[in-house]
Amino acid sequence: MKKRVQRTGGGRSSLRQQVKEHPRLAAVYVVLRVLVVLVMIAQIFNGNFENVFLCVLTLALFTLPSFIERTIRIDVPDTLEVIILLFIFAAEILGEIRAYYIYFPHWDTMLHTLNGFLCAAIGFSLLDILNRSERMSFQLSPVYLALMSFCFSMTIGVLWEFFECLMDQFFLLDMQKDTVVGAISSVMLDPSGGNTPTAIQGITDVIVVTAGGAQYSLGLGGYLDIGLLDTMKDLFVNFIGAAAFSIIGYFYVKNRGKGTFARRFIPQVIRSQPGQDEAPHPR
Hints:
Layout: H1 2-7, H2 11-21, H3 23-46, H4 49-62, H5 64-72, E1 74-75, H6 78-97, H7 100-103, H8 107-132, H9 142-171, E2 179-181, E3 184-186, E4 198-200, E5 207-209, E6 215-217, E7 223-225, H10 228-254, E8 268-269
Antiparallel strand pairs: 1-8, 2-7, 3-4, 5-6
Helix pairs in contact: 2-3, 3-4, 3-6, 4-6, 6-8, 8-9, 8-10, 9-10
């Protein structure tokens, strides 16, 4: 807890002391920010101002952990903070600007799995802080805390998929990545117009006919699924990440906070300094 209390002191001496006590976190901050700035300069010279905006957004997102700590007095562990920073960099700079989503097929899967884990950690910590607060009149069981953190993570995952769908529908983007499949089955293909699923297998090409009568052969080697499989895959790996942390959180509460592994991912309330009003503290 000492780290975040010192952040309220301000001044260059306080900053130097923080860097000295947490060199790995400081190194990650510096390296990632330098990389983002270099990418931003390159995008300015290339005239790609959309990517410049992504770089500015990334730099702003990097300040979120420290902003949360200063405003609501929550201690974000170094490990969790580093993971959040790397997640932002991997999603915005590597994924979007460097097109890792295209070059590495499982890049998006990795990030959604990590997102499920992180959101479960955040949801768990919010409930755990309330659960340990002397001002609250209720106590939640370890099972309930784990279940609620899992539900919180899944809800965030679903809301993100809603956002992707809206962007694709209204702005013709491709956030829900398409998938090429070799077979489809639909009741809309039923020759009798009934409710019987009719399958088409061994699809090797699709012909698209526009309203003007123009025909285009997609030449993709199959049928183009418009995002459904990608969405379900994202939710499934989010489920895996959320379930993994929920299990960790359950044993963390069950053992009354013993052990060091779970502590690295669970934010805690900062204890007030002498002379200040005592804030609720989970330990």
